[in-house]
Amino acid sequence: ILHRKYDPAALARAIDEHKATAMHVAPIMMKGIMDLPDFDSYDHSTLRTVFYGSAPMPVAQLRRAVAAYG
Fold first, then answer.
1. Are 14 and 41 in contact (CB under 8 A)?
2. For a surface tag, which of 4, 7, 20, 62 has the fewest beta carbons within 10 Å of its beta carbon?
3. Is the pLDDT of residue 70 over 80?
4. Distance CA 35, CA 19 (A)
5. What pLDDT score does 38 carry?
């Protein structure tokens, strides 16, 4: 699923609606998705692989992502 610009809510919806199995994001993008007020209302259980790059991810944020996505 490709988006022309980064919109955390649109990305969270797309993962849910299209049952995405993988995503590749920058750490700041991951944080934006997890910081959505309604983050827990999206079903991201189909995600099997999450790649991140372009910058290091703080350990606390990585732990939060692992807890959120498994």
1. no
2. 4
3. no
4. 20
5. 96
